[in-house]
Amino acid sequence: MKEKGQKIGPAQGPLAKMEEKIIALWKDKNIFEQVLKKNEGKPYWVFFEGPPTANGRPGIHHVLGRTYKDLYLRYKTMQGFMIKRKAGWDTHGLPVELQVEKELEISGKQFIENLVPGDKRASIELFNKKCKESVWKFKDEWEKLTVRSGVWLDVQHPFITYERSYMESLWWICKQLWEKDLLYQGHKVVPHCPRCETTLSTHELAQGYKEVTETSVYMKFQSADDPQTYFLSWTTTPWTLPGNVGLAVGPEFTYVKIKTQGKHGEEFWWLTKERLSILEVVAYA
Fold this sequence. Notes:
By secondary structure, the chain is α/β, with parallel strands linked by helices.
């Protein structure tokens, strides 16, 4: 019974104490190991987890996600399946590199390749070494959280994505897919980082995505029927203009024709009514 005015935090409450007793019991009786041994030789049920990166501290959202995953593993275990429950560490990716760049107070490939002045190979090796060190920064906190949240994972024998055995396994899988004619070449529009010169995943975008205002280009396309008439078109990718073969119009838009003063006299421009705000209109034609 708590006294009046006494505050009980989440780590000291009755539920927290009960959880600690259960975890201690599991550890004392080797429950996790017994469960694995009990289902040896049974059909496998495989669950591939998106492993965490230990260069960032775990948060409450990680507990929630892992709890949901653990429910499936416990349910399938009770059905008699063998589940390895192998823990893993994601040691690749742009967030890792960006974190190391911040620590070194550099930004961009040109600085990475000159960490050892005049020696590009040694510079990259040094940067890779620091990245490998960075990914283990909060390893202990992750393992403590895993135990404290009651999630059963084999943290003693994890897979690590930067290890050669892991990478070669992925290449082996790709080879099997290729031999079964399950790979194809396609095209996909993806976010691109001009600074890093690489594509960006949804996760990487979430690390610091923000909308910014950039300079864009409005092009005038001359009408084939009237050299004084132009169609306005806006683009954020002017480098694709040489490959353009035509202009598209939308039947749901309202287009207007305006008269304005060009460099060489009077001109007429076609554009959508909604975009009139970008112009200083002289008169409607």
